[in-house]
Write a structure and sequence with these properties.
Layout: H1 11-29, H2 38-42, E1 45-47, E2 59-61, E3 93-95, E4 98-100, H3 102-117, E5 125-129, H4 134-145, E6 149-153, H5 159-165, E7 170-174, H6 178-188, E8 194-198, E9 209-210, H7 211-217, E10 233-240, E11 246-252, H8 253-265, E12 278-281, H9 288-300, E13 303-306, H10 323-327, E14 339-342, H11 344-361, H12 365-377, H13 386-400, H14 403-406, E15 409-412, H15 419-429, E16 433-435, E17 444-448, H16 452-456, E18 462-468, E19 474-476, E20 489-497, E21 503-508
Parallel strand pairs: 5-6, 5-7, 6-10, 7-8, 8-9, 12-13, 12-14, 14-15, 15-16
Antiparallel strand pairs: 1-2, 2-17, 3-4, 10-11, 11-19, 17-18, 18-20, 20-21
Helix pairs in contact: 3-4, 3-7, 5-6, 8-9, 11-13, 11-15
């Protein structure tokens, strides 16, 4: 007897068998590649072999390279911050509401720098009291080009202290913040600074210079007396600690070129930032991290804007960090955003909104969730799966509109994202979510205040985070004295160093 006598088939059996084989092949041959190399899934950083008493080992990010040297420039031709504006980029890009080419931007930077150099001497300090706008970028680059030190504040509450303890030679501000400047100056008893105002009021009894007039004053370029060098300190940033104390950090050109290098290193290899991208940030340019993001966009030739919640100087309450704040980016005439730098509250609001829409829109949500979770455990995400087309894509579009199709990555920083939010956010958004600490990625980290007895029993070390590296600025004392270069910087944050080399930030001390 032949095998056909024992095996009975019909057309339906053959069809079902063909479908089964096809599904198996599609599942295994057309599966997306993992977002990171499998080795990195097992080990997140390189731990030093020596551990001092009361400390953890020193952990070094793999981005430092095989020779253990920190990357300090995103390109060999980038040595100072004005080099971020590359002359070989001819295509215009949009910065907030202004469409501008690199050549036009460099011309405006040179003009404003030459203009302000005629108002203040080279060894002056200039306080920038502007919300995020193209004038902020031009001002900061112009001052650095002329080797004039700039000062920024992360909070308006610091203004009176800075005017009293570190009085600047000039203040650049917007007309809406003028009353606060006048009050703080009276309280500090400091009235000898020059005042440069963006969009000044029509009537004022105060002597001030129009920002546009300063730019026009420098139409004839004036070369700086001392050209800036990579190690030159060009800005000082004042910020508040969680306990309300004022701290300040001095930053050099190399700090920012390293910072941009760290920003670029955050993304998976499959995601390249280019002139076709639009970066939207929720971090103020008055902070070093916010400026590093903006300069990364400048370097890549991408369009750039910030959210209303970044405004440091405002009348009234701050906007909520939610989906509405994210969607406000479309008020600018920028291309649809592709990369978002958000705070944890933004991501939490976004994930819950998409989740709620998905649950209400489809009865197969539990099945879709299970399959998306299985894909994530294998190291990959995709927005084009069957479950996205039937469940999640429409929910994302209902919440984000056009941005649902264009956003390809989200970077989360500026606080702690609850662990029970990260997984749902990854599943419903189906794009890389990079959870980072705001000191950047190219740095050395260690913990102090570690309990040696607990560690010797095999537990993970827990202690205060100390950071060091070229992207970390030089902390200044209360009287403005600079500390030792390349010293460990206390962050005031607690963390746990896990066995795979990753750090879990636990919160403030």
């Amino acid at each position: 007897m032949t095998i056909s006598d024992y095996l009975v088939t019909d057309d339906l059996t053959v069809l079902l068998g063909f479908i089964g084989v096809s599904v198996f092949l599609l599942q295994n041959l057309y599966k997306p590649q993992p977002l990171v190399h499998p080795i990195l899934l097992g080990r997140q950083s390189d731990a030093g072999r020596v551990r001092h008493p009361g400390e953890s080992a020193v952990y070094r990010n793999y981005g430092t390279g095989l020779m253990g040297r920190f990357p300090v420039r995103p390109d060999k031709d980038v040595n100072i911050v004005t080099d971020f504006v590359k002359p070989d980029f001819d295509a215009p890009r949009t910065l907030w509401s202004t469409k501008i080419t690199n050549a036009q931007l460099k011309a405006r930077v040179s003009a404003f720098g030459s203009g302000i150099a005629k108002l203040v001497p080279e060894d002056s300090t200039v306080l920038i009291l502007l919300n995020d706008c193209i004038e902020f970028v031009i001002t900061d680059l112009a001052l650095s080009e002329q080797s004039i030190a700039s000062i920024t504040l992360s909070s308006p509450k610091l203004l009176a202290q800075v005017l009293e303890m570190h009085p600047p030679d000039a203040i650049i501000t917007d007309h809406t913040f003028l009353p606060h400047v006048f009050k703080a100056a009276r309280d500090a008893g400091k009235h000898n600074h020059k005042l440069i105002v963006v969009n000044p009021p029509q009537v004022s009894d105060i002597i001030m210079h129009r920002w546009n007039s300063v730019e026009s004053l420098g139409k004839v370029p004036q070369a700086p007396k001392n050209a800036p060098q990579p190690g030159s300190a060009y800005t000082v940033s004042f910020f508040e600690t969680p306990s309300g104390e004022m701290r300040c950090v001095q930053l050099s050109h190399e700090n920012f070129t390293s910072g941009v290098t760290a920003i670029k290193a955050l993304f998976p290899a499959a995601i390249n930032i280019s002139t076709l991208d639009t970066i939207v940030s929720s971090h103020s340019l008055s902070t070093p991290y916010g400026r590093a993001i903006a300069y990364a966009a400048l370097f890549e030739g991408a369009s750039f804007a910030t959210l209303p919640s970044t405004s440091v100087y405002r009348d009234g309450d701050a906007p909520a960090l939610d989906v509405a704040d994210i969607l406000s980016a479309i008020k600018f005439p920028i291309p649809s955003p592709t990369v978002l730098f958000l705070k944890p509250e933004h991501v939490q609001s976004l994930a819950s909104s998409v989740m709620d829409r998905a649950k209400k829109s489809s009865f197969v949500f539990p099945l879709a969730w299970r399959h998306k979770f299985a894909s994530l455990t294998e190291g990959f995400l995709t927005k084009d799966s069957l479950w996205d087309r039937t469940v999640f894509s429409s929910a994302r579009e209902d919440v984000l509109g056009k941005m649902a199709d264009t956003v390809k990555a989200v970077v989360i920083s500026g606080g702690l994202l609850p662990s029970d939010v990260l997984l749902p956010a990854r599943l419903v958004l189906s794009i890389p979510l990079i959870n980072t600490y705001t000191h950047g990625s190219a740095t050395e980290v260690k913990l102090i205040g570690v309990n040696d007895n607990v560690v010797e029993k095999g537990a993970d070390p827990v202690g205060e985070i100390l950071v060091r590296g070229p992207s970390v600025g030089n902390m200044l004392s209360a009287d403005g004295e600079a500390g030792e270069k390349n010293a460990w910087v206390h962050t005031g944050e607690m963390a746990r160093a896990m066995t795979n080399g990753a750090f879990k930030v636990l919160g403030s001390m």
